[in-house]
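Researcher: I need the complex structure. Ligand is nicotinamide-adenine-dinucleotide. Inputs:
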Amino acid sequence: MKTAILGSGLIGRSWAMVFARGGHAVTLWDQDSAQVQKALAHIANTLPDMAAAGLIDDADTVRTRITGAASLAQALSGVGFIQENIVERAEPKQALFAEVEGLAPADAIISSSTSAIMPSIIFGALATRQRCLVSHPLNPPHLAPIVEICGADFTSAGAVSEAKDFMSGCGMSPIEVKREIEGFILNRLQLAVLNESFRLIAEGYVTADDLDKTIKEGLALRWSFMGPIETIDLNAPNGVADYLERYGPTIRRVGDSQAAAAPWPHAIGAMLEAERRAAVPREKLADTTAWRDRRMMALAAHKRDQEKKAPR
Ligand SMILES: NC(=O)c1ccc[n+]([C@@H]2O[C@H](COP(=O)([O-])OP(=O)(O)OC[C@H]3O[C@@H](n4cnc5c(N)ncnc54)[C@H](O)[C@@H]3O)[C@@H](O)[C@H]2O)c1
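Model: Output:
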């Protein structure tokens, strides 16, 4: 199938590799053509690393499926799936989609990578809105299989299931957000952890460094291959009901105190910035991002091998 990527920054260029890995032809477009060139160079550098980690078979085959487009009309010609990844503001997205619906084939799925904006806000004014939905990834999607498919009331069930099938075919793990909600599922979970982290640090209960350790040396070890519900099912001898019998009152009490807690102070931003820049200077951020991506590739390869051996 022909696919189009609109907005070729961090997320767009990563989606291009995902769609091409799924066997699709991908056309990249951006309002800034230099971004398309940067994306193509980044993709050419990244695909060999993915092949080396065993995550794709052949870097050259995947790369030749990806090309740049000089215009929006050219990018959208004959496509079956459109993924938008421009700036995270409703108005530019609405304006772009108003143009897109005049240029795209009538049966194309029209999808946004928005992190938090509800599909009814982005697509509500469109005539083709029954084919419109959000496909929200974790950054970078070529290394993290999760994608949240979220339609609005007007999105057809057929479009949701087509999007899920398309994403599965590209090696992603789609979940369905059954009713739209700001932040969808992934960011609501992430933001719950961040809100609590900011409060615990600001109120002097823990340092940022020790809080990070609590996740990476603790909770995330299990969470890298099982979810919080699967986790608690194994944290009491007789399963999840037993767990709630034992710990339910504590969960409720702490939950009440979290709901009643004062908002974290804005000064936490400057404090965390000072601490993080002492650990990773600004000029080292790109190198650190590349290191993170290599770690994610190694973890993805490890998980794939372990999945083959998992009891089912
Ligand atoms: N970065 C993340 O962690 C992450 C994760 C999931 C989803 N997202 C979502 O993906 C989208 C893109 O984020 P990103 O991190 O790739 O941003 P980015 O700044 O890296 O890329 C955005 C690209 O869009 C282009 N652009 C901006 N406005 C445009 C317009 N009106 N028309 C055409 N092109 C335009 C820019 O030139 C740029 O190349 C956002 O909606 C964001 O919320 C981001």
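Model: Summary of the prediction. The mean pLDDT is 96.
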